[in-house]
Structures are given as C-alpha cells and as structure tokens.
Amino acid sequence: MVTEEMLNQIKSMIKSEKRILTEKADLVSYAYDGSFGSYLPDLVLQPLSTEEVSGIVKTANRWKVPIYPRGRGTSLSGGPLPVYGGIVLDFSLWNQKLTIDRDDTVAIVSPGVITAEIDRAAREFGLMYPPDPSSAHVSTIGGNLAENAGGPRGLKYGVTKDYVLGLEIVTPQGDIIRTGGRTIKNVTGYDLTKLIVGSEGTLGIITEAILQLIPRPQATQTMMVIFDDIVDAGRAISSVLTSGILPSKMEIMDQFSIEAVEDYEPIGLPTDVDAIILIELDGHPLAIQDECHQVEKVCLDVGAREVKIATDSESAAKLWKARKLVSPAIVRKKPTKISEDATIPRSKIPEMFKRLKEIKTKYDIDLVVFGHAGDGNLHPNIIADKRDKAEMKRVEQAVTEIFSTAIELGGTLSGEHGIGTMKTPFMEMELGGAGLEMMKRMKTAWDPLNIMNPGKIFPDSKDQRLVLVDD
Amino acid sequence: MVTEEMLNQIKSMIKSEKRILTEKADLVSYAYDGSFGSYLPDLVLQPLSTEEVSGIVKTANRWKVPIYPRGRGTSLSGGPLPVYGGIVLDFSLWNQKLTIDRDDTVAIVSPGVITAEIDRAAREFGLMYPPDPSSAHVSTIGGNLAENAGGPRGLKYGVTKDYVLGLEIVTPQGDIIRTGGRTIKNVTGYDLTKLIVGSEGTLGIITEAILQLIPRPQATQTMMVIFDDIVDAGRAISSVLTSGILPSKMEIMDQFSIEAVEDYEPIGLPTDVDAIILIELDGHPLAIQDECHQVEKVCLDVGAREVKIATDSESAAKLWKARKLVSPAIVRKKPTKISEDATIPRSKIPEMFKRLKEIKTKYDIDLVVFGHAGDGNLHPNIIADKRDKAEMKRVEQAVTEIFSTAIELGGTLSGEHGIGTMKTPFMEMELGGAGLEMMKRMKTAWDPLNIMNPGKIFPDSKDQRLVLVDD
C-alpha cells in the first residue's frame, strides 16, 4: 500500500529519518490500543510540526492511503487502530508546547502533551484544567480531544469539549485551518471546534489546541456514604443535586466492586452493603464545610446507613483508595477486562443497576459496576478470559444487551470512551437511519476519499461485529 | 414564488387556517427583526407540532421555496430576515411545552417558550437555567438556540450551547431526527447538537430541546468598582480571575456610557472616571461574603478609586441600575443604535478600549462601550440617525474597522449576536478561505437546495454589503 515513491516523498518532508518507522518490530507496537483487535500499519510517522502533518496528509491523498492519528494508545474503543493499514501518525513526541496565558486564562498545547501536565502547569498560576479522565497521567491531550474524554469531574465541570476554545487542524485534504479562538464567546459561523472534538480523528487532525482554564478551587472535602439499598443511593444523588449543591465528584461502587476490593486488599470496607458513593466537594473552605453537613443530612434522610467524612487530606486519600483499587482488584480475578461506558439519565441509575444484575445472571458473567454516578456515566466492567471462547460469546451477548438497555432507558452507547471500532454496529440503534445519514454526509463532504481514520464511528463492511476477541 | 397548488398542500397539513398568514398587512410584521433591512415574505406559517414542520419542509423542498424560522424577532444580526422571500415559520405560538425533570435536572421545551420562563420554572425546583441574554424576557428559546445566545453570566456559566443536551430537529429534507439526549456525557458519533446550536437555522429547524439545569446558587453579592484608568480595570479583571474567584458577572461601562446614563437619569454615578466594573458573585453565602472582601482588596491593589458593596438586594438593584440604563440612555440621544458584539481575548480589553477611542475620533461617531468584560465580549454601540446618509457612511466604515481590529487582536466578529445578514462580508477575514470552505461543504451536504434560511452566515451575491441603512 505504501509505495517506494510515496515513502521517498515522505522522507523529503520529515526532517529526521528517526521519526519514520518501517521495521516490523516497530510497527507491531502500533497495532494495539487499550481495547481489542490488532491491525498492523504499513508505516509509522512521528510528526513534530503542522507543516509536516500537512505534507503527510497531502501525500496520503495523492496515493489514497489511510491515516490513523494516535496519541499514547490508551483508547478503550479502538480509536487509533489502523484497521485498513496505511500510516499511523504518532503524536506522542510532539509535546513541546505547553504555554499558560494567565491573563486570558488559557493553555496553548501541542497534541502530544500529557493531559495531567496541563493541569499541573495551570496550578502554578492558581488555575485549573478540569477534565480528568482516569488515564490523564498517560494519555495525550490530542487523544482526549479526538475522543472528547470525560472523567469524574464531568458532573460539575463538564468534559474535554467544554474547555476547548480553539483548534488548529489539518483537513483531510492537508489544508491548515484555525477554528474558534481565545474567547469563551464565539458565534462566527458553524462551531467547527466542538464538531472536531469528539469526531475521533475522522474529520481532520488536531495540531494545536487553545484550552480554557478556570480559577482553581481553594479547597476540597471528601466523604463516603454507605447504602444498604442502591435505590436509596440513586435517590441520594438526586436529592443532593436539587439541594443547591453541585459536588465536583460523585462516584458509585456496587456491591461486587466493594467485594472485589476487599478480596484484593482489605481496607475495611463494609461488604454487607449494596452501594457506596464517594463524594468530593470543592470551592471556598467555609462553603464546603457547610455543604458537607448538608450533604450528610440529605443522605441520612433518604436512608444512608452511614456517612464518613474525611478530616484531612490523608483520610480523604484513604476514602478514595477504595475507588482507585477497583480496576486492579477486578483484573486480578480474570485477565480480560471489558470496560463499558453506557450512560443513562441520572434518574435511571437504580433501574440500570437492576437491569445489570439481571444481565449478570442471565449470561453468567462476572460483572462489576462502578463509575461516575452523578452524571449517569456508569462503567459496567466485565471480567473474563479471552481464551475461553464460550465465555466470550456470552460476554458479547451481555455487552449487546447493556447497550440496548442503555438506549431503551434514554441513554447513550458511550459517555466518554467513544465509538471507535467497538460500537459501530450499534450506531443506527441509537441514532436512527436519518440521524446516521446526516453524520455520514458530513464525513463524505469533508473526507470524500475516506482516508481519515477509516473504519471508525460508521458501520462498514469490515467491522460489523463486536471486536472483543483478539485474533 | 408560493403557488396556489403549494398553498393548498400546506392548508391540508396545518390544522387551523388562522395559522396561515397571507395578507400583506400580516406579512409586513415579519419583514423586520432587531437589526437592519426589511424583506417581505410570501407566506407566514405558525406551526404547533413537529409533524407540521416536517410536512412544511417537505413541501418547500418540492417547490424549492426558502424557509425562514423565526422566534420573536429580537435578533441583532438579521437571523430571521426572509432575504429571499418564501416562507417564514413563526414559532412564537408553540410555547406549550416547558417540563422540568427534577431528577435528571433537565428542562424539555418547545421552540416558542420565552427564555426567562425556563429559569423561572427551574427556580421552583431549586434549579437554574444560566444563559441570560438581555432579551431573555422577550426572546424565544428557539431563537436563542439558533443563535447560541450569550449574556452576562457567560463568564462563569458559559453560553446557551453549554446547556443543550439534546435536540429534536427537522432536517432540510423534512426528516425528523434526534441528537444527543438527557446525559451530560455523550460521545456517540458527531456532536450534531452543538453543531445545530448556533448554526442560525441554516442546517435544520429545532422543534424541541433538552436543556441542562444546575443547582441554583443560594446567594448573590453585587459590587461596583470605580476606576480612574480603564487599563487598571482590565488588570483588575485578570487579577480577580487568577485569585481563585470566578464571579457570575463582570460588566464594564466606559466613560461615555456613564455620562450618557447620568445625562438620562442622574443616579449619582461619578462622571470624572474612566470606567466602572459591576461584579456579581454567586454561591454559598459564607463563601461570597469572604470572596467579596478578596475582590475588593484585589481591585484596590491594582488602583481602583473606590469599591461600593451592596448591603442588600435593594442596594444591589441600585448598583445594577447603572448598567440597565445604558441602552435607553443612549437611544434617547439619537434614534439609530448599532449594537456590535466583537469579542476579544480578555487580556486585550485595555488595548481594545484604546482602539475604540481612536475609531470614535477618526470617524467622528457617537460610540459608547459597555458589556461583558469578564469574557471579553464588549458591546461597542454606535448611535446615529439613519436618515443622515453621510453619518451612516462613517458608521459603516467605523463598524468595519471595529471588526478588523477585533480580529487583529485575536478575537472574533461576533461573541453572541451571530453573523446573520450583517457580518457575512467579514467571514473570510476571520476564518480564511479554507475554513469558510469547510463550513460551506457542510451546508451543501445537508441542504443542497439551499432552502434553509438562505442569505445568512455565508457571503452571497445579494448581501455583500453591511446592511445598515433601511431601504
């Protein structure tokens, strides 16, 4: 697919041969991401400038070769997988630009910057970059932008998209355009910024972003609320949110998550309960002290068994440890972890938990549920062994039912992981034929040769199945 | 343009003939909006259901007749003007649906609901709908959605788009699709919701919206800060925002606005100063009390002459009165008011004020500046008399220079009013040829017949001039 002539043209535009990878030993590292499936690219390039990206895209157009942008490969939906071979653009080296403009309260970043570094840099100016995907210490901002990453703070602060003011992108034809700018308000024409963020690299390549920062809250307060009945937990969430208080995080762990953690590392969690909610308040110290007591009262009023309030940062860390241990705890049980992010309206949380319990029994699978309860973004995680074909078949059926249940309850296939290769067969179920058609028209109008991350978002002939099992 | 046969088809699908307006006396009311220019439609329809809208659009497709959606006509950019005649869809009667779902903290609304009614309904549940355009008591939510309306609270709470979770829209072909849903997090395919909001009715017609509500802040605190030098005012804004405090509003008035108000109704404003900033803090009562003192200190440190702090809601209202009187005060001087909303990065506020003073002198125009300083969304207002052709020529030149200055300073043509008919000639200046081309591709892919609000956003042969003077 990648001809000698094409490679020569590329060599003339990439300044260092070290950033042109053609050896199979190198290419193999780019065949995977945090999801399933393995697809070997023909070529990996590591651009360090917008001009290089523009040149590469123009070359790819000439030879009609697919391009797959990639950050650090933490995607849980197959976002960077080169399903049709071609060129992987590895942006992980391009992390040089991370400028904080204190007066405009923005950060200007190159695509390879590690997400957590942005918040760290902002902190020095009394500012905050709120989006906090769990992979923030590993993932690149470019990947976060492509997938519109979420995180626990989504409840109060929204998601990646809510903090993107402007972008520089390279179009599928290799043109360089700028969208948005440095202002919160901008209604000049269509909002290409928010269209590109979350379009999973199918409409263009992000080469720079201007991110909005906000004043950093002065203090935080953590509390753990224990429930004998998960339905009460659901009611507690609603009651807190309609009492005038907006916590920065509200994370839920179901009984199976709690048991898994206590099995893995006994930290004193009560295993005879139905659910735990971890709540973080942030803001002015006097306000959160008062709000903490209000939240405690609201939770006890709706039937919480107990409320534990952290007294200092050390005891707060101890409470959060329960949530942090869930993932390592469950993967110890079985090697294959399927992490879903079907998201439902907040009022449907109790119903969703009930339905997930039924799915667990019906398909005889190991299912634990935890996640961002405040915004309905649960993470049903199935643990399995991918060598067990019979089990994986049941897992596939269970995942399908989780998706259809989320949609039936007025929710969505994906809250924060993206569609990628994994969820393409379900797109029409959520969007309907006409809705999907309008998205396809945009893709075709922008990328008529279909060279930008093909095989993602849209159902196509190659990936009409749930890619759960590695080849 | 509207044939007998077409009209008969429309009569068969609109349930009441009262909602089909064909008399010239009626049509004339739909020729105008809050901006300039006057264009008579051929027909006005007042739909009350999605099915009616879908049927009308299908009919319009058959006869290739333009459709112009309209709320209450408060647009300052020409959004609803029927520049090519055809059908105006008047949504002002369709205000029946305004449902608050307390558990999901959302409002579900039909397009004709008055914006301020949404916040009023939310308040009963301890919730808030933050977007607060100045026209909120008159404008419809449908118009706000089409234009992505802003308002003073944009600084802390963002704009209309930030509160739209899902939409029902009728496509340019008359198909009914749903975008997004009821969840904060949704990354299933392209973000059509945020694309449609702000697309000024050129990509489809919004027939229902699901809006996010947030917990209502428990208290507010207003203060007025007086500056001898507007540059200090600019520094004060930055200093406050990097001190860990995010006010809900930060409104600035320049010397000319202050003088105009005192001329109109003497309320005791100091007229020997360069600028006033009005600040509103909201949140927990203890927090804002403390923050108020911090803001006072920060402002005095950077050179404020005086800080006035409201002691109760009555004195707060008195402070805000200054800002509310600006518009009535300036229109008394001359009958024609040109309200611009060029927006610049916050750090460029002092420079923008300097440049606006120069423009005022250069073109010998009456220019006052006030607006949402916290987010750089200034409102340079020119007052003139449209019967004075020579003056209007100078106004047109001054407006052109305001636009180019805003773009030169890294800002945008429009922060919250939209492009409409008024700013189409300047689109390429801000977006560049390739950026504008990518927007056009989307328009053409979705609306190949160009029947959805034609003559807006994109420069075309008919409106290559600033439509400042009525015919």
From TrEMBL, chains A, B:
Domain annotation FAD-binding PCMH-type: ranges: 36-216
Cofactor dependence: FAD
Organism: Cytobacillus horneckiae
Family statement drawn from the similarity comment of this UniProt entry: Belongs to the FAD-binding oxidoreductase/transferase type 4 family.
Keywords from the named record: FAD, Flavoprotein, Oxidoreductase
An MF annotation (GO) of this entry: FAD binding
Alphabetized Pfam families for the sequence: FAD-oxidase_C, FAD_binding_4
Ligase among keywords: no
InterPro entries: FAD-bd_oxidored_4_C, FAD-bd_PCMH, FAD-bd_PCMH-like_sf, FAD-bd_PCMH_sub2, FAD-linked_Oxase-like_C, FAD-linked_OxidoTrans_Type4, Oxid_FAD_bind_N, Vanillyl_alc_oxidase_C-sub2
Record's protein name: Glycolate oxidase subunit GlcD
PROSITE patterns per UniProt: FAD_PCMH (PS51387)
